[in-house]
Amino acid sequence: MKVAFLIHSLEVNSCRYRVLQYLPYLKKQGIDLSIHFYKRNWVDKLKFYNTLGQYDILYIHRRLFPPLEFWYIRKKAKKIIYDFDDALMYRSSGSKNPYSFSRRMKFAYMMKRVDLVVAGNQFLKSEVLPYNSHVEVIPTSVDLSRYHLKEDYIKKEVVTIGWLGSSSTLKYLKSLLPTLERVYQKHPCFQLKIVCDQFLESSKIPVIKKPWSEEEEEVDLKSFDIGLMPLSVDLWSQGKCGLKILQYFGVGLPVVCTPVGINRDIVEDGGNGFWAENEDQWEARLLRMIQEEGLRREMGLKGRKKVEAGYSYEVNSPKVLQVLRTVSEK
Fold first, then answer.
1. 133 and 154 together in one domain
2. What does the DSSP 8-state code read for residue 102?
3. CB within 8 Å of 102: residues ≥ 6 apart
4. Predicted confidence band at 250 (pLDDT cuts at 50, 70, 90)?
């Protein structure tokens, strides 16, 4: 089976966790695969599209094409799989109006014409079903060989509350900053560590600013005592696939999160973390985690088991292979 994977870049997290990490496994299973990047000009686009007939499957990651362009792709490709992990049919959080005619039009046009869709969660699947019944949910997964349990759950004078992510999601942490500052007034024995390529400022709490790097990601995660995943409650957030939480759980961190979208599935409130739906809940649950190191350990270990059971590379690699085989045999 010959498969062409069409992605944005090697550096984008979504590409890394939805596509690239599976490629070594697929190669071992005998898949003849190649990676291609979205082209900027029509000369390069047509040059690539005119080669699609030599592949059994074109695997498109995340991109929504204008109808005319996708009509041409569909004409040239034998079979097409579409994979996505964001609510691309809506505008992102913070937009005055989440509904977009152009996004919905492109989404609907493509979903009706692909052979199978791989959705990152059940909400995204529900958005596809009106257009295409061939949908498989494969959650975003982490390779647990890259994440090992932290060992220092001991009581500390200064607890590290951590957030790791891309600058595009930093706005969610910014909205939580006033609550963190109030918690610090009541319990001034924690610090906020931000691992990103951009940072927030606060004159009321100590903030550690650490540039993200793939080589130091696990060490940075292990330096946290509590992981944060705040979100806004909107249509865009319902499409999120919980990567931050999976990374936190990978090293055995407890999590406090906004219970929206897949967060509600990954985090069991009071089991492997806490849900926080308003400022009072964020404050109360962070204070409890800061004060109870035993609870942090218990929740963190349960979180690791949650990833092992359903959100790991090891569990989901065979599902990706099965999707390819299913479409190839149609």
1. no
2. H
3. none
4. very high
Number of domains in the chain: 2
Per-residue tokens: 266: 């990954």
DSSP-assigned beta bridge partners for residue 191: 160
Both 177 and 75 in one domain: the answer is no
pTM of the model: 0.94
Residues 85 and 188 in one domain: no
pLDDT at 11 over 90: no
What separation in angstroms does the CA of 183 have from each of 91, 172, 224, 290, 292? 32, 17, 17, 10, 15
| Terminal CA-CA length for the chain | 13
C-alpha–C-alpha distance, residues 315 and 262, integer Å: 18
Residue-range definition of the domain harbouring residue 200: 145-310
Contact 44, 67 (CB under 8 A): no
pLDDT of 156 over the 90 cut: no
Q: What are phi and psi of 219, to 5 degrees?
A: -60, -40
Domain with residue 199: its CATH number is 3.40.50.2000
